[in-house]
Design a protein that fits this description.
The protein is of the alpha/beta class. It has one domain: Rossmann fold (3-Layer(aba) Sandwich), CATH 3.40.50.300. It is 33% helix and 25% strand. It contains eleven helices and ten strands. The chain has a six-stranded mixed sheet, sandwiched between helices. The protein has a four-stranded antiparallel sheet with strand order 2-1-4-5, covered by helices on one side. β7, α8 and β8 form a beta-alpha-beta unit. α4 crosses α5 and α7 packs parallel to α8. The radius of gyration is 19 Å and the shape is globular.
């Protein structure tokens, strides 16, 4: 089948997961200025599961991820239509404080970005500025343990976080996110800059963390998506946008990961995961 025919096929919506949802998008569209970036996205993110966003470059995966905690608000000219709810609350409602929202929906970025501070201060920083009143030493240790880093750094907490290896730095950033006690963790290609051993450690960590957190991960590594995620959304460029110079992302298919990779319902998903497009 020609690629043009594959791209022209209509989107088949995925069923709503049976379990409870933590985030829901309802006909979400996002623009950067006059350029549409996302079009009519409706998906449910399940609680205490790992959801992967896959798809070719430029299809809006990171834009969708940043929409969940209103990081796109920081981009001049960005605007949103439709709705995102978090625990049933419209995140764009006037009474919602975006800073408070980002404490509850934390973000781990593609490149490890520890502060030029000690390991201890890196973990404590967010909690401290948010007015944490508990035992800071206990919080730092607990967060580093949850990030599977404590045993490697417990004797050098006063050393700079920049002295750690790349994989350790990424786990430090995860510990920093955990210290502010979020409910959801967003990860934007968290392993793309890491070696295979560090990647395996972060993947194992994600599997451990989903007992207490809901995780959404953007990844270009389809093997990683298949290994770590419970649900996968395959995003594509809208074929109707190709002639107007804009790159507009849509969700072609959203389903349990095993089913998406072994029996995709949408031909665009099959074309992507088999390498015929993307």
């Amino acid at each position: 089948m020609p690629i043009s025919d594959i791209l022209a096929r209509p989107v088949e919506s995925a069923p709503t997961p049976a379990e409870s949802t933590v985030l829901t998008t309802n006909h979400l569209s996002v623009w950067y200025g006059a350029s549409p970036a996302l079009k009519d996205i409706t998906i449910d993110i399940p609680r205490n599961r790992i959801t992967a966003l896959i798809g070719p470059s430029g299809c809006g995966k990171s834009t969708l991820l940043r929409s969940f905690n209103r990081m796109n608000d920081l981009i001049p000219g960005a605007r949103m239509e439709g709705q995102i709810t978090f625990d049933g609350q419209d995140i764009a409602a006037p009474e919602v404080d975006p800073v408070a929202l980002r404490r509850r929906i934390g973000m781990v970025f593609q490149k490890p970005n520890p502060f030029p501070k000690s390991i201890y201060q890196n973990v404590a920083w967010g909690a401290r500025i948010n007015g944490y009143k508990g035992d800071m030493d206990d919080l730092v240790e607990r967060s580093l343990r949850r990030a599977a880093l404590w045993d490697e750094v417990k004797s050098k907490l006063n050393r700079s976080g920049l002295e750690l290896s790349g994989g350790q730095q990424q786990r430090l950033c995860i510990a920093r996110t955990l210290a502010v006690e979020p409910e959801v963790i967003l990860m934007d290609e968290p392993c793309s800059a890491l070696d295979p051993i560090s990647t395996a450690r972060v993947e194992d960590l994600m599997d451990d963390l989903k007992a207490d957190y809901s995780i959404v991960i953007v990844t270009h590594n389809m093997q990683q998506a298949r290994r770590v995620s419970d649900m996968t959304a395959c995003m594509m460029l809208d074929d109707l946008s190709n002639g107007n110079g804009h790159r507009t992302g849509i969700v072609a298919e959203f389903s349990p990961t095993d089913r998406l990779f072994t029996n995709p319902k949408d031909p665009r998903t099959e074309a992507y995961i088999t390498g015929r497009i993307g």
